[in-house]
Amino acid sequence: MSARFRFQDFEIWKFAADIADRLFDIADTLEKRKLFRFADQMRGAGMSMTNNIAEGSGATSNRAFS
Q1: 50 exposed, middle or buried (CB, 10 Å; 0-12, 13-18, 19+)?
Q2: Is residue 50 in a domain?
Q3: I need a surface site. Which of 2, 14, 19, 25 has the fewest CB within 10 A?
Q4: Which structural domain, as residue segments, surrounds residue 12?
Q5: What total number of domains does the chain contain?
Q6: pLDDT in tens, 3-23
Q7: Taken in order 40, 46, 50, 55, is the CA torsion positive or negative?
Q8: Structural domain contains residue 41
Q9: Domain annotation covers residue 61
Q10: 7: closest CA among 62, 64, 63, 59?
Q11: pLDDT class for 1, splitting at 50, 70, 90?
Q12: Closest-CA residue to 51 (of 23, 28, 20)
């Protein structure tokens, strides 16, 4: 059994993870066209969404969490 973090239950985090998966697929296609920098930017954007939501969920006070 793996530990779950509270952000994994947020609908917005799940939505962001789905978008990130799509961005990674697009990035794979871009790399085939030798558009490496653009592919890297797409992957970074995808990871940024989920990472920011996860980081915000670590707040200890309700005010900071909001």
Answers
A1: buried
A2: yes
A3: 2
A4: 8-56
A5: 1
A6: 778 888 899 999 999 999 999
A7: positive
A8: yes
A9: no
A10: 59
A11: low
A12: 20
* Tokens coding 43: 């992957």
Structure tokens that stand for 3 in this block: 């530990």
pLDDT for the residue numbered 63? 73
φ/ψ bin of 2: left (φ > 0), alpha (ψ from -120 to 50), beta (otherwise): beta
Model pTM? Answer: 0.78
pLDDT digits (tens, 9 = 90+) for 21-63: 999 999 999 999 999 999 999 999 999 999 999 888 877 777 7
Compute, in degrees rounded to 10, the torsion defined by CA atoms 35, 26, 49, 43.
-40
> What's the pLDDT score for residue 12?
93
Q: How far apart are CA 30 and CA 45, in angstroms?
A: 15
User: Rounded to whole angstroms, how far apart are CA atoms 55 and 37?
Assistant: 26
The helix or strand, by DSSP H or E, that contains position 2, with its residue range, turns out to be none
